[in-house]
Design a protein that fits this description.
The complex is a heterodimer. Chain A is an all-alpha fold. Chain A is 72% helix and 0% strand. Chain B has two domains: 35 residues; 224 residues, MetI-like (MetI-like fold, Orthogonal Bundle). Chain B contains 14 helices and two strands, in the order H-H-E-E-H-H-H-H-H-H-H-H-H-H-H-H. In chain B, strands 1-2 form a two-stranded antiparallel ribbon. Chain B starts with a helix and ends in a 7-residue tail after the last helix. The N terminus of chain B is likely disordered. At the A-B interface, helix 1, helix 3, helix 4, helix 5 and helix 6 of A face helix 1, helix 2, helix 4, helix 5 and helix 6 of B.
Chain lengths: 273, 311
């Protein structure tokens, strides 16, 4: 496999991989192109001229759908989810470095949070709030629903990070006279910072796009994916694609920012170290 | 939070080095125990409040009574007997299993070869990471948008149909492309293959390359290396990916609803319909059954492969 000349296997698999990437990105690129459809164009090709009409349409007052409001809610919810996911996963990661009574149970509980069907979480949280007599809302029950989805990823990432984290660095810091807080703040935290950004990225994007778990837990006001879903049933113009393009570009920007941050933090550490 | 693992490991050393001071050791151990509990508390709280209690609520409500406007606390079992006694339920479960099996096989095949290509055929680590990211990025964008994006492809006047007609391959548009079970499977493979690629890639990357060299030196063919060395070592990744894909497909309702255009059914969709009709206890009974089925499948996968050593 590491022979100098590329084998036939390589070319077959490279072709297969290229097809896979095309399969992943092809459909997304068509709605990107179609969102620039002319004012009289429809939901499919051919393009009836090229315009920004549907993007302008998106920001006008809509008969159906509340794009601005749902975007704002999804944004705030995403940021809240990110902050909580990063902090809680970090703390849990630190806790799991030691065995404590119930650690196995808690770990499996976190894993099962991924495995339990999303619609069950949605229904469960909805019913739980109803039984308690609390009105569900996107910032309370919705937030909880999102955390059941983002936290397991965060915990798993932190678990993997600390599994490969050598305690020698902390011992060295202690030998140099650092107290526990200093050891954490100046030794551990900078070393795991890129992973924490990764956890944050997962937290935000998973929350920003989450649908199934939010359905019953969001209360009166929709998050963006719920709004988009509602629009699929009653919007039959390319404005839907414009919305898709805008939110996808936004997701890509977030990913780009997070990845650059990871690279920059990593470089800085490499320079100092 | 103030005492981190630094003292934890130091503590472990103290315990082994100085057994003569048991009292301090005991005190420190309880202290560290307390720190661990405090650190684990937020996670336990969130999962308890938004996972454990909601599931218990579902179990409770599945025994409640309901009419068209509200639900009543009660202890009745007809939510279960009605669900299990109806042949519609069994048919829908069968249909869901069918989707699960097809999507599982397809994602496993695609996911394995994509991961294999990345792990064994890409030589530079940077290139590996870049290509892996190329596969991962769509996972971080909206599922609904990715589903909608199939419409201009598969629709009656979509790209595929118009090209096929133009090329003279078919005389009139193929109807089965969109709003069909074919579309459901296609969209699910599109959405979920990543869940297979990532864990398999992870295990493949950990395979000691000298094992493969050794197999080759011993005279194994490429195919023998694949079946006797690589696949057995990739089993944990395959298991984790399978758990993801199977549970996602088993509980899916949005893909089935959107891509089949109401032509097909799944357990999740049946529940979603009951929820929209406010038949919460019936939906809850369904949910309990689905949860048991999913957990049984996961347990079966875990029996075949022990994934604990992977984490």
């Amino acid at each position: 496999m590491h022979t100098e000349k590329r084998s036939r296997e390589f070319y077959i698999l490279a072709f297969f991989f290229a097809l896979f990437v095309l399969f992943l990105y092809g459909p997304l690129s068509t709605i990107f192109i179609l969102s620039f459809q002319g004012p009289s164009g429809g939901l499919t090709f051919p393009m009836n001229g090229v315009s920004m009409h549907w993007f302008a349409n998106l920001f006008e007052q809509q008969a159906v759908g509340d794009f601005g409001g749902s975007f704002r809610r999804s944004m705030i919810l995403g940021l809240m989810t990110t902050a909580i996911t990063v902090v809680v996963s970090l703390l849990a990661g630190l806790a799991f470095r030691r065995r404590f009574r119930g650690s196995t149970f808690l770990f499996y509980l976190a894993i099962s949070s991924l495995v339990v069907p999303s619609i069950l979480i949605s229904l469960g949280i909805g019913l739980f709030f109803q039984v308690l007599g609390i009105r569900p809302a996107w910032w309370s029950s919705g937030l909880g629903a999102h955390l059941t989805w983002t936290l397991p990823f965060g915990v798993l990432i932190m678990f993997a990070v600390f599994n490969r984290f050598s305690p020698a660095y902390e011992e060295a810091a202690r030998d140099l006279g650092a107290n526990a807080w200093q050891t954490f703040r100046y030794v551990v935290l900078p070393m795991i910072a890129p992973s924490l950004i990764g956890v944050g990225l997962f937290g935000f994007t998973l929350s920003y796009d989450e649908f199934a778990r939010t359905l019953m837990a969001a209360g009166t006001f929709n998050t963006l994916p719920l709004e988009i879903y509602g629009m699929t049933t009653n919007v039959t113009t390319p404005v839907l694609y414009a919305l898709g393009t805008v939110t996808s570009v936004f997701s890509f920007l977030i990913i780009l920012v997070a990845l650059s941050a990871i690279i920059i933090v990593g470089r800085r550490r490499a320079r100092i170290g | 939070m103030t005492a981190t693992a630094a003292d934890i490991s130091a503590d472990a050393k103290n315990e082994s080095d100085k057994p003569a001071r048991p009292r301090r050791s005991v005190w420190r151990r309880t202290n560290h125990m307390l720190v661990s509990y405090l650190q684990a508390m937020p996670l336990a709280l969130v999962l308890g409040l938004f996972l454990l209690l909601p599931i218990l609520t579902i179990v409770m409500v599945s025994f409640w009574d309901y009419d068209s406007v509200r639900i009543y606390p009660d202890f009745v079992t007809f939510n279960y007997t009605e669900t299990l006694g109806s042949w519609v339920t069994w048919k829908i479960y069968l249909n869901t299993f069918k989707f699960t099996l097809i999507v599982w096989l397809l994602t496993l095949f695609i996911g394995f070869w994509v991961a294999y290509f990345l792990a064994f055929h890409i030589r530079s680590t940077t290139m590996q990471m870049v290509l892996f990211l190329v596969c991962t990025v769509p996972f971080l964008t909206s599922n609904i948008i990715r589903m909608i994006s199939w419409v201009p492809f598969l629709g009656r006047n979509g790209l595929i149909n118009s090209s096929l007609i133009e090329l003279g391959i078919v005389p009139k548009p193929l109807e089965f492309l969109l709003f069909s079970e074919f579309a459901v499977v296609l969209a699910m493979v599109h959405l979920y293959t990543l869940f297979m690629v990532t864990p398999i890639f992870n295990t493949l990357m950990r395979i000691d390359r000298s094992l493969i060299e050794a197999a080759r030196d011993a005279g194994a063919s490429g195919f023998q290396i694949l079946t006797n060395v690589i696949i057995p070592l990739a089993k944990p990744g395959i298991a984790i990916g399978s758990i993801f894909v199977v549970t996602l497909v088993m509980s899916d309702f949005i893909t089935v609803r959107f891509m089949s255009g109401g032509q097909s059914a799944s357990v999740g969709l049946m529940m979603a319909n009951q929820i929209s009709l406010l038949q919460y206890p019936a939906a809850a009974a369904n949910a309990v059954i689905l949860l048991i089925v999913v957990l049984l499948i996961v347990a079966a996968i875990l029996r075949v492969v022990d994934i604990r050593k992977e984490l």
